[in-house]
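User: What would this chain look like folded?
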Amino acid sequence: MNFLKQETQDQFKENLPGQFWRQVGGLILVAISYWIVVRLGLLLVAQPERVASIWPASGLTLAI
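Assistant: Here's the prediction, encoded as structure tokens.
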């Protein structure tokens, strides 16, 4: 029984670096996506009022 517990712990330790880099990559992807959506949202700003009627970055944040 102890052998199975040790095997599970070893598999967890092996996957730990892969999980870390996957999470870092996902965070970078989210940051780049958010930056792009903010830039696109700034194109929707009405000039006289300087107000955006639609802000796509909020939608992206809710989706994440």
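Residues 2-42 form the longest helix (41 residues). If you want, I can go into more detail on any region.
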